[in-house]
Amino acid sequence: MKRVLFVVYQAPVGSIWVNEAFRTTFGMYGEDIEPAIVLMDEAVTAIAKRNEPERVGLLPVKIVHKYIKKYGTEVYAVKEDLEKFKVTEVDEGCMAKQIPLSDVKNLIKESDFVIFM
Amino acid sequence: MKITIQVMKPAYTYEDLDSALHIAEAALKRGHEVRLFLFSDAVIGANKGIKPIKIDRVIPERMQALIDKGLRVDLCGICMDYRGLTPQHIIEGAKPSGLPELAELVATSDVFINFMA
Amino acid sequence: MVIMIKYGLYHEIEKRKMSFADAGDTVVLIQNGIFWTIREAYKKYVKEGVKVVALKDDYLARGYDEKDSPVPLISYDELIEIFEKDHKTAG
């Protein structure tokens, strides 16, 4: 089994990478792969309760919620970055676990391939 | 050894596809099986209609030459649709593909080289 | 693990990626990642025992002299050798 970690660092409003990371992750379940997602830096705003890309005509992030639930995808958000970007109210739809940056290192080391996007 | 290289940034604007082709060439020379997965804007790099100015390199031709030497190129199909690319637009030997194929590459490759977004 | 760094000095995430490397890991500076060799900027983020190398073509193409590099400059062939020995990657 391969462990693959997708680390997204760009904001979900203004770039496609949060959506693409989730889409790619969900695509991994057909094989013997254990994927997980880390939201880092600006990408942590993806779990902000009032984050709304559709407000400026972009693809919503909320469309991934049902698949996160369906697949039981592990989603992590970096605590220090949530504080940095003042994300105080969190949308539980992403079921993100808040972890310190130091724990991201462990996730990376446990992975075979780490894909930053 | 099976090596997959993933590129996400557009050719000519960034160096990623150039780097990927250099790596692919070196790996092929060393007898490895090499796969290239073009994701997001990187799919444009396989467009056979690309016409750079005369002094510039022709990336699709370079890719085609490596395909002739054994490189296999997959393009994210949805990414092609988003950019108006059809199978008729892309170089011979490159094939429209998708996340199941990417998952298969992740599962079966010994090394996965990602050029971060 | 082989960690590829392709962005230059301004990039916060590349700083984090370098700091994740442990002794035995290899940090490969490619493209604008070679700018981390200037005044050994990488040393602020990379621990002792981590092997740091830079892609020779990318280094020379950006106008620097081989003799000034604080890290070994490698060819694409040597990069593949690194991957042959260490299959885990982050890029």
Q: How is this structure best described in words?
A:
- The complex is a heterotrimer of chains A (117), B (117) and C (91).
- Chain A has 117 residues and is α/β, with parallel strands linked by helices.
- In chain A, 28% of the residues lie in helices and 22% in strands.
- Chain A has helices at residues 17-27, 65-71, 79-84, 101-109, and strands at 2-8, 33-39, 74-78, 97-99, 113-116.
- In chain B, helix 1 runs parallel beside helix 2 (59-68).
- Chain B starts with a strand and ends with a strand.
- Chain B has a single domain (2-114), classed as 3-Layer(aba) Sandwich (Hypothetical Protein Ychn, Chain: A), CATH 3.40.1260.10.
- Helices cover 34% and strands 21% of the residues of chain B.
- In chain B, strands 4-3-2-1-5 form a 5-stranded parallel β-sheet, with helices on both faces.
- Chain B has helices spanning 16-29, 59-68, 77-82, 99-108, and strands spanning 2-7, 33-38, 72-76, 94-97, 111-114.
- Chain C has 91 residues and is of the alpha/beta class.
- Chain C has one domain (2-85): 3-Layer(aba) Sandwich (Hypothetical Protein Ychn, Chain: A).
- Chain C has a 5-stranded parallel β-sheet.
- In chain C, strand 1, helix 1 (12-20) and strand 2 (26-29) form a beta-alpha-beta unit.
- Chain C is globular, with a radius of gyration of 12 Å.
- Chain C starts with a strand and ends with a strand.
- Chains in contact: A-B, A-C, B-C.
- The interface between B and C is medium-sized, with 20 and 20 residues.
- Strand 5 (113-116) of chain A pairs parallel with strand 5 of chain C.
Task: Reconstruct the topology from this structure.
The complex is a heterotrimer of chains A (117), B (117) and C (91).
Chain A: E1 2-8, H1 17-27, E2 33-39, H2 65-71, E3 74-78, H3 79-84, E4 97-99, H4 101-109, E5 113-116
Parallel strand pairs in A: 1-2, 1-5, 2-3, 3-4
Chain B: E1 2-7, H1 16-29, E2 33-38, H2 59-68, E3 72-76, H3 77-82, E4 94-97, H4 99-108, E5 111-114
Chain C: E1 2-5, H1 12-20, E2 26-29, E3 51-55, H2 56-61, E4 73-74, H3 76-85, E5 89-90
Parallel strand pairs in C: 1-2, 1-5, 2-3, 3-4
